[in-house]
Amino acid sequence: MKYVYLTFLLIAFPLALNSQSFTGTVRNAKTQESLPNVNVYYSGSSTGTITDFDGNFVLPALEHDQKIIVYSLMGFETLTMSNPMNSSIGVIELTESIGELPAVYLDPDPWSREKKEAYFKEQFLGNTAVADRCEILNMEDIRLQFIPSIDKMVAYCPVPIKVVNKDLGYLVHLELSEFEISFRKVDLKKLPEEIATNPRIEKRTHVMESSLYVATTYFEELKEKRPGMRKRKRHRKRAFKRSDVKFFQTIIADEFAEANYKLYHKGKPVKYDKQIRVVPKEGYYEVIFREMSYQVVDGEGYQSNIQIDNHRLYITKFGTVMNYRDFRWGGFISRLKVSGMLPLEYVPNP
Description:
Layout: E1 22-28, E2 39-42, E3 48-50, E4 56-59, E5 68-72, E6 79-82, E7 88-94, H1 113-124, H2 129-132, E8 135-136, E9 143-147, E10 152-156, E11 161-165, E12 170-185, H3 193-196, E13 206-221, H4 229-241, H5 244-252, E14 262-265, E15 268-269, H6 272-275, E16 276-280, E17 285-289, E18 293-297, E19 303-308, E20 312-315, E21 327-331
Parallel strand pairs: 1-7
Antiparallel strand pairs: 1-4, 2-3, 2-5, 5-6, 8-11, 9-10, 10-12, 11-12, 12-13, 14-15, 14-18, 16-17, 17-20, 18-19, 19-21
């Protein structure tokens, strides 16, 4: 069986625990003027603040201190800071953005906006019932382009993408730094003659092979009263149980069997302790896989496929993968995307 591997990514790598809050000032790099109303937050979390009139901010401590701090303001390039060493960050300078696509392609784009939006929503929001109920509030800000010469569709957005996930009760702000879908051309000559010669049948010229996106995220609790908090908590607990974060947390905690996961290689059941070895490192875990591909079945019977390029993944204690380009998900987990995301500080109730 041939698997289509779909990768969904999130820049959110906690590097160290620290209960301190952070202070600083944000300025315009060109004019040195103070910048008010800059969004300052921990990537992947629901903890953040904005700068005051003089550009000053105090970023509250995060219990599971996520050491990627994001600075975002419309009209300026988004800045990320990894693992600040001191509680006083000092002066942060933001550069005014040009607002152009990051790359220029001369190929004419033969695809309609409607077709590209359909692909984008499926590979960004996900392909589940929950994803179908999510809404992108500013779809008109997202620029989409299909590039025939390289068989890829790319996306760019000069402002944060805002996604309403009513099932989980979040308004998610995503700063998209990379998005692409790779396709394979279809040989139309191999189509049956009755299809190839029928003008009423739309011929698929490309088949999707993989997708990838990289983004920083900030979660905001929805103000709507429905669904109620009790239902939100139930939905969040369910989403966490089915997530890749839960899977990787289970591996590094050596609780694979207790969590009712089952592991298969080439369709045959294999023993977890004979296939995966966890080596604790300073601030992360090195996870070594005997094989490069597995099928994973969770406690509810959902099947996913994982492909590891170099037998090794480097995983934080929060379950995020640091070398995210070295593996791909297929199957159930690959369908979750943004619709299944939770803040890093989320901890399910017993």
